[in-house]
């Protein structure tokens, strides 16, 4: 097994390697809160601590200790790409209302979509300033791992596909997609569509993978095999979605009868590209989505999708965090939320 290094401790604690060096060598300039966190992470990793740390019990700083009640707590919503969609802003707005009604304070903590090697978490997350966090729209595996190690109550909404639920140190809410997308694909077959494709990056999010599994379950029952030519499931760049889908559709020798899209956003990109190609939607190629995002009014009359009640979702997230704050020792929960399919 690889011997842990100061860099490993720095990544686990969300601090710089220099800060770890200062603490382990008893140099001044690091707060007690951060020092305790670094020592705790070092011990968990099995790093050989100096004698002064191994001979004395390191007590958690009161600022990092979990409250028995969420009253007067400061809650942080940790978000990446917060302005990407009304979908996300509606969820955050509902969280803010619930936090205010509960007499708590809300803090927004913005994090990058991808983090560099020497990334350090924003100080409020490591200083004991917040008593709980909700992680939204964060899809960087390394960043999720760092956030997961924070010794405060936390709730995740979704995660990257390769995030191991066995390591989960907070509750996770997932939008159920397997059964709903399986039903949507069944519906396409029932409406006479025989060649059905799938578009969506299944490496990006656990929920995306679940939706693809629903699609494949239906295809397997209705057809002899899944045609790989009609499936674009690999990694798609956040900034290059339009270009990559354009190239994919343009490269097809023949279009399928329908595409099951991993989200309304993807369905809208596909819709615009098909229209530019002179393809009639939904007459020639039908499309389905997921989320029921109000942004895309040009598809509202034909797009079959899954309606996500963002107000209810925001409430569920913050109430789950309040529960976790008040019940820190109960088992970690992975919760699947089922939603209504809107057929067209």
From TrEMBL:
The GO terms describing molecular function are:
DNA-binding transcription factor activity; transcription cis-regulatory region binding
Instruction: Please provide the record's keywords in A-Z order.
Output: DNA-binding, Repressor, Transcription, Transcription regulation
The record's CDD domains line, in alphabetical order, gives: HTH_LacI (cd01392)
The HTH lacI-type domain covers which part of the protein?
Answer: 4-47
Q: Which PROSITE patterns match?
A: HTH_LACI_1, HTH_LACI_2
Query: One of this protein's Pfam families, by short name?
Result: Peripla_BP_3
Q: Does the keyword Transcription regulation apply?
A: yes
> Keyword Cytoplasm: yes or no?
no
Q: Which domain of life is it from?
A: Bacteria
> Mind telling me what this protein is named?
HTH-type transcriptional repressor CytR
């Amino acid at each position: 097994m690889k011997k842990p290094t100061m860099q490993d401790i720095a990544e686990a604690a969300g601090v710089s390697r220099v800060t770890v060096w200062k603490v382990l060598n008893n140099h001044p300039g690091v707060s007690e809160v951060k020092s305790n966190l670094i020592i705790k992470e070092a011990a968990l990793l099995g790093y050989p601590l100096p004698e002064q740390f191994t001979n004395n019990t390191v007590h958690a700083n009161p600022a990092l200790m979990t409250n028995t009640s969420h009253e007067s707590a400061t809650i942080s919503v940790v978000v990446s790409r917060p302005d990407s969609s009304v979908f996300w802003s509606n969820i955050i707005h509902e969280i803010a209302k619930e936090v205010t009604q509960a007499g708590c304070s809300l803090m927004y903590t913005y994090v990058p979509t991808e983090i560099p090697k020497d990334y350090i978490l924003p100080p409020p997350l490591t200083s004991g300033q917040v008593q709980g966090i909700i992680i939204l729209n964060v899809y960087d595996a390394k960043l999720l791992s760092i956030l997961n190690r924070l010794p405060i109550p936390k709730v995740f909404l979704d995660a990257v596909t390769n995030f191991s639920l066995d390591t989960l140190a907070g509750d996770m809410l997932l939008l159920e997609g397997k059964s709903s997308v399986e039903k949507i694909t069944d519906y396409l077959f029932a409406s006479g569509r025989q060649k059905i494709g799938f578009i969506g990056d299944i490496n990006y999010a656990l929920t995306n993978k679940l939706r693809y599994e629903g699609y494949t379950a239906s295809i397997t029952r209705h057809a002899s095999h899944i045609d790989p030519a009609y499936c674009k499931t690999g990694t798609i760049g956040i900034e290059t979605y339009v270009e990559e889908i354009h190239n994919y559709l343009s490269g097809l020798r023949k279009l399928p009868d329908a595409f099951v899209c991993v989200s309304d956003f993807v369905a809208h990109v596909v819709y615009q590209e098909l229209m530019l190609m002179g393809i009639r939607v939904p007459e020639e190629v039908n499309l389905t989505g997921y989320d029921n995002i109000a942004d895309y009014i040009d598809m509202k009359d034909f797009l079959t999708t899954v309606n996500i009640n963002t107000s209810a979702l925001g409430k569920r997230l913050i109430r789950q965090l309040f529960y976790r704050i008040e019940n820190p020792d109960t088992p970690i929960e992975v919760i699947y939320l089922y939603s209504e399919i809107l057929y067209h």
